[in-house]
Amino acid sequence: MDGAETNTLAKSSPGGQATLLEITPKDIASYRTALSRMSSGGDASATDMPPTLTVADGKTESPRDSLTQSMDKAGYSPSDRAQMSQNFDKFEKNARENGLNDTQIGDTYKQLNRILTADSAMTSPELRSKFVQQWSEKLADPGKIRQGWHDTCGMAFYQKFAIQTMPDRLTGVMADALTKGNMMVPDDSRSLLGMVFYDRGQAKGERSLPFEKGNYQPDSEAQGKGAHKDGRDYADQVAQVTLNSIKWNVKETDPDGTVTTQGRLTFKQCEKVERPSDSQPPDPHADKSCESVEQKSFWGGKIVHDANGYGFGGSSTMGDLARIHRAITGKNAPLMGFDNAQEVFSSPEALGNFLEGWQKNGSMPLSLWVHPRHPGFRELYLERHPEKTDVPATTMMHIVGIDKYNPADKTVEVYNPWGKVSRMSIEDLYKSTGR
């Protein structure tokens, strides 16, 4: 064991025979309760611990233990610490039910600990403490993630998707943004088609992707301790501006590998701007904030506009989500959803059959574009816009997540970044995917 001191403990196996468990300073950290159970003759399999423990100076410490110690020093109130502990309990339960392992759970805690203990000029200790507290709520219940008044429904869906499937990776990206102000991404130029459907080869190393410091100061929705009345909080802001920054700071190529973008772009979040009508320039959508994308240090630092003269914002396609996923994981993205389900599926039954099979494979959630004019979305849109009597036809499409399909009654449970999870018929969902 490379000269490391090795201790052994008797452990009862399922067959009733004692085995020896090696414990070295190099072993993986686990729950502190395991030692007392094992030393008293208990079965270690009664816990979710790995078979080895870290032992340093005669005591064990798990990633959660380390995080708890940092929380004790971070100035949280006793009630806040108790609630965060409950959130982490729920996170662990849900994570294991979703097939995640102890390493992923432990690494999530390590990244949160890094956020709490970092010496960073990017964000203040108070903001990082606020983020960790609110992030614990997202880990416990990803359905609480909200886009607020910002045009970030796609980012909210991906935030939820990643928390459910790879919380360690997403929390690590948040830690990079809040402590370093940058992250390393694959330095490759790939076509959108290549990123989604086939591999064009390994990336040629990595490059640093910088984040705009101003994006990490709380906007008006994120000023309070908890969530704003529209549901968005500082943790959602951090996640969604970070994911948008990853989306825009990329290089795209055509299928032959020729770079087609005009440089790497920087996403900047602005405050929500109220507009009296849907047709008033410079933005046709009254429900949009004023997100913009700026070309930094490239061709004069211009603000980038689309063909109609409107500033680019946070709206997303499934291809955008694939870009983000590859930047974070270095791997091609799984199928995350459909921009226009009615072009793919001929009927509600066909969509339902697909969702049933997708669910059996354990691949939920899945995202769909819907139009807010349809039942199930219209009511919440009008609640968000009390000045309106109907949903304008010019309103942009909206990304939602499908959490569950119930084939018995042909209903779906829909995650809506605007608000609550709702249940609707597969027929209504299918209709909503078209204008």
Q: If you had to describe this structure to a student in words, what would you say it looks like?
A:
This protein folds into three domains: 7-61, no CATH class; 66-319, no CATH class; 336-432, no CATH class. It contains 14 helices and 13 strands. The protein has helices at 33-39, 63-73, 78-97, 102-117, 125-140, 153-165, 167-179, 192-197, 234-248, 318-329, 341-344, 348-360, 378-384, 426-432; strands at 7-12, 18-23, 182-186, 190-191, 206-210, 252-253, 265-268, 292-295, 337-338, 366-370, 398-406, 411-416, 419-425. The strands form five sheets. The protein has a five-stranded mixed sheet, sandwiched between helices. α6 (153-165) packs across α7 (167-179). The longest helix has 20 residues, at 78-97. The model is unreliable at 1-56, 189-201 and 273-313 (pLDDT under 50).
